[in-house]
């Protein structure tokens, strides 16, 4: 059990460094723009480019590495990640910084897919939801603690030092992973057609729409969280850091509750979750005149933000284990792929709503997508009832 807990910490640490690398740009926008004489808005496009490359490339690279040892694939990809992150710190121009971010995005999605796959394999059956929830929490912990620390490093020293710090932590994590994770792990071999067979299953086809519309709905609101707090709710800019920090804590709580949902009811509870989330988004525009009531609604939305993560991740993995064992790694990647596509949908929808209707309407715009997700999860539960998934356990590794 001690070995399992240590391995669990390593897997969460991998998610943490991936989160730090992905989110760090948000904290160093001004410093990068100043050094390269590039508008802050242009630096902001690095976030968009990263998310799109991440979402588009992950399934293709996942299909390739899925034929090889999980351990060796993880080690190779983490070395590429470390080199790409170091390249970001060395970038001599904005162009080369963009190239380094693209290289990092190419491997980041596959690394988290392998991390979740390994978590699913090493965890005892009753610990799977707990460990997967913690792996996802690694990203939330990065946004709450890692990014502010990286931002402090950037403002105190240079933005390049933020990347050096990530490299140092990544090297330590790589060494610990090499000596602690089991080396003999792989899925049943299969060609490209065999692996893609997973996507023909109706339970998978409906399931991938949930992170798409679910994250799309919340990101209509979340993309404009800062102006919501300052412009709509009239909180001071001095209090903004504290409010964002508290919201980050609600995101960690959300991931942990996600593990509990996966353990006690799983997807069967998600229609109620989506109903609550849709109601919160719907009433937000109605209570903006009541500052503290509206703030409570905002924090409640933070708690609902990641509740789907563990239930849908376990659904993908269990369907693959039972009927498509050659597609385990691909199954592990589906949630993060479509979550990132959902981010693009939500942020683009939010921009349209704010431009044509106004900031106060973003709650209703997000509620529409959440309502769609609620209908889809009811459909998915009916499909699962027709063809129940048999949960299997792994031998101790």
Automatic annotation (TrEMBL):
| InterPro entries recorded | MFS, MFS_dom, MFS_Efflux_Transporters, MFS_trans_sf
Query: SUPFAM superfamilies, per this entry?
Result: MFS general substrate transporter
Q: What residues does the Major facilitator superfamily (MFS) profile domain cover?
A: 7-390
Q: Name one GO molecular function term.
A: transmembrane transporter activity
Q: How does it sit in the membrane?
A: Multi-pass membrane protein
Q: Which domain of life is it from?
A: Bacteria
| GO CC, alphabetical | plasma membrane
Pfam families the record matches: MFS_1 (PF07690)
Location relative to the cell: Cell membrane
- What residue ranges are annotated as transmembrane? 9-30, 42-65, 74-96, 102-119, 131-150, 162-181, 202-225, 231-253, 290-308, 328-355, 361-380
Keyword terms:
Cell membrane, Membrane, Transmembrane, Transmembrane helix, Transport
Q: Which CDD domains match?
A: MFS_NepI_like
**PANTHER family named in the record:** CHLORAMPHENICOL EFFLUX PUMP RV0191, PURINE EFFLUX PUMP PBUE
Q: What is this protein called in UniProt?
A: Transporter, major facilitator family protein
Which lineage?
Bacteria, Bacillati, Bacillota, Bacilli, Lactobacillales
């Amino acid at each position: 059990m001690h070995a399992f807990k240590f391995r669990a910490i390593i897997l969460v640490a991998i998610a943490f460094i991936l989160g730090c690398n992905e989110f760090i740009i948000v904290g160093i926008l001004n410093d990068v723009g100043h050094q390269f004489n590039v508008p802050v808005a242009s630096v902001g496009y690095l976030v968009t480019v990263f998310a799109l490359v991440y979402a588009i490339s992950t399934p293709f690279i996942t299909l390739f590495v899925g034929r090889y040892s999980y351990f060796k694939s993880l080690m190779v990809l983490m070395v590429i990640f470390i080199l790409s992150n170091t390249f970001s710190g060395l970038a001599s121009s904005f162009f080369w910084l963009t190239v380094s971010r693209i290289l990092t995005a190419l491997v980041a999605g596959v690394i988290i897919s392998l991390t979740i796959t390994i978590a699913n394999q090493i965890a005892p059956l009753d610990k799977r939801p707990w460990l997967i929830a913690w792996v996802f929490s690694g990203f939330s912990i990065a946004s709450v603690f890692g990014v502010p620390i990286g931002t402090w490093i950037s403002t105190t020293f240079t933005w390049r030092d933020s990347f050096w710090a990530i490299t140092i932590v990544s090297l330590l994590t790589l060494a610990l992973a090499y000596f602690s994770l089991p080396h003999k792990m792989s899925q049943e071999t299969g060609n490209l057609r065999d692996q893609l067979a997973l996507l023909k299953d109706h339970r998978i086809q409906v399931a991938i729409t949930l992170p798409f519309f679910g994250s799309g709905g919340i990101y209509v609101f979340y993309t404009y969280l800062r102006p919501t707090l300052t412009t709509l709710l009239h909180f001071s800019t001095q209090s903004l850091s504290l409010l964002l920090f508290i919201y980050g804590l609600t995101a960690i709580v959300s991931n942990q509750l996600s593990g509990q949902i996966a353990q006690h009811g799983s997807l069967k509870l998600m229609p109620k979750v989506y109903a609550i989330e849709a109601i919160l988004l719907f009433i937000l525009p109605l209570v903006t005149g009541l500052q503290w009531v509206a703030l409570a609604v905002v924090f409640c939305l933070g708690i609902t933000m990641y509740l789907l993560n563990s239930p849908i991740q376990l659904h993908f993995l269990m369907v693959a284990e039972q009927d498509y064992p050659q597609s385990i790694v691909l199954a592990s990647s589906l949630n993060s792929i479509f979550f990132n596509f959902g981010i693009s949908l939500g942020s683009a929808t939010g921009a349209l709503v704010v431009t044509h209707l106004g900031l106060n309407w973003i709650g209703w715009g997000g509620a529409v997508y959440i309502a769609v997700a609620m209908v889809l999860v009811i459909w998915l539960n009916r499909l699962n009832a027709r063809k129940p998934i048999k949960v299997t356990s792994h031998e101790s590794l």
